[in-house]
TrEMBL record:
One of its GO terms (biological process) is D-serine catabolic process. The gene is Dsd1. One of its GO terms (molecular function) is D-serine ammonia-lyase activity. This is DSD1 dehydratase. Gene3D superfamilies: Alanine racemase. Residues 9-130 form the Alanine racemase N-terminal domain.
Length: 156
């Protein structure tokens, strides 16, 4: 019910952190889901099944190895992997640092490599480093820094 309220009844555009959540929402009629964790190889079959089943099942990538894994495991029926490049803007949990020279190369490889198999949807950053903040100004400072880092990366 909360997700339906959050999406204004559209049942689209939600992010989940587990595939159990993705399956739960898919069973409830949601057909536009972002799995907000870089796809681990051992979860690829589950991600593929969801991508085949839903109108839009989106995943995160943060390495050339992840991209290669998706390219080597294309979706059937003309479907494409819909991916977001996961940037690490200070959380240090997942993602590639936007200042890492490999980050731009990876973005280009996703966008220009094989768009009929893997399509770059955008870039994604999660401000998990706000969890330890004790006040609103600290959260706002991290949000500003993350926004600046993402915008600088996208501009580049």
């Amino acid at each position: 019910e909360g997700a339906e309220l959050a999406t204004g009844g559209s049942r689209r555009g939600i992010a989940v952190s587990t595939l159990a959540e993705a399956r739960f929402f898919a069973a409830g009629g949601f057909d536009d889901i972002l799995y907000a964790v870089p796809v681990p190889r051992w979860r690829l079959a589950e991600c593929s099944a969801l991508a085949q089943r839903l109108q839009r099942f989106q995943v995160l990538l943060d390495s050339p190895q992840g991209l290669e894994m998706l390219l080597q495991n294309p979706l059937a029926g003309g479907k494409r992997w819909l991916v977001w490049l996961k940037l690490d803007c200070g959380n240090a949990r997942a993602g590639i640092r936007p200042t890492d020279p490999e980050a731009l190369a990876l973005a280009r490889a996703i966008a220009q490599g094989s768009p009929e198999l893997v399509t770059l949807v955008g870039v994604y950053a999660h401000c998990g480093n706000t969890y330890g903040c004790r006040d609103v100004p600290a959260v706002q400072a991290i949000a500003r820094d993350t926004t600046a880092a993402v915008l600088e990366f996208v501009t580049a």
